[in-house]
């Protein structure tokens, strides 16, 4: 991939870009590919790139310009090197008629049931069960899971406020089984020698699970978060509650899922039905 980045750099040098922009664009593409270095190129889909940029923006908080610049760099790289125009905004937002990929509940069930490793099953299970970001789970400490009150604490950062999310009943046995077997201290899902578990390793585990479950979709770990959001709305739950669960700053970010959710209003109950008239 290095030779492609060099080719991209040469293109920038011949164009109207100044040295600072060239350095910033080159670095953004390098960081992007380093993040996905163990993922085959054909698996780095538009949705995966969109998820990457959105999560980058959520991590950086107010540094919207830096995220937008990274998005512009990646989009230009794909256009120059692969002759492909990405149908996403520089911020990672999906353009109209290009909604995020969703896995059905039965497909997620197959993925989780295909996993024999208790750590992998608990990790992917907790992501889907509360619509968490992979980065949030990898940063999670054992003390952040409150079995007594059935909640998970997402720690505050310098850019984001903390929040509490539900601990799904069906994920509790997965977590307890994993904890009993591995006895984690500090980080809930630590890697070897006390180091953080690699996000790339989790992505590879997920791709292997997709293959084993015979699901031919260009899904990523972040697809579990998208799927949770849609399934949440399809149960008739409030979009404002979903916004809090996902930790979105703006409701319009959450609203994209309402375009996908298949909501059956026949199952809803009118407040009139509770009136004594």
Overview of the structural elements:
The protein has a 3-stranded antiparallel sheet with strand order 1-2-3, with no helix packed on it. Helix 1 runs antiparallel to helix 2 and helix 2 (19-35) packs across helix 4. It is 51% helix and 4% strand. The longest helix is centred in the N-terminal third of the chain and has 18 residues, at 64-81. The protein is globular. The protein folds into 2 domains: 2-81, Orthogonal Bundle (DNA polymerase, domain 1), CATH 1.10.150; 105-259, hpI Integrase, Chain A. The protein has 277 residues and is mainly α. It has helices at 2-14, 19-35, 46-60, 64-81, 105-113, 118-130, 134-138, 172-182, 199-212, 221-234, 239-246, 251-255, and strands at residues 145-146, 151-154, 163-166.
CATH topology of the largest domain: hpI Integrase, Chain A
- Low-pLDDT windows of residues: none
The rounded distance between the terminal residues' Cα atoms is 71 Å
CATH architecture of the largest domain: Orthogonal Bundle
The CATH class of the largest domain: Mainly Alpha
Helix content: 40-55%
> What Rg do the Cα atoms give?
20 Å
Task: Return the string of H and E elements.
Answer: HHHHHHHEEEHHHHH
CATH superfamily of the largest domain: Intergrase catalytic core
Roughly what is the average pLDDT, rounded to an integer? Answer: 86
**Backbone structural class:** mainly alpha
Helical run tally: 12
| Main sheet record | 3 strands, antiparallel
Shape: globular
Strand arrangement within the widest β-sheet reads 1-2-3
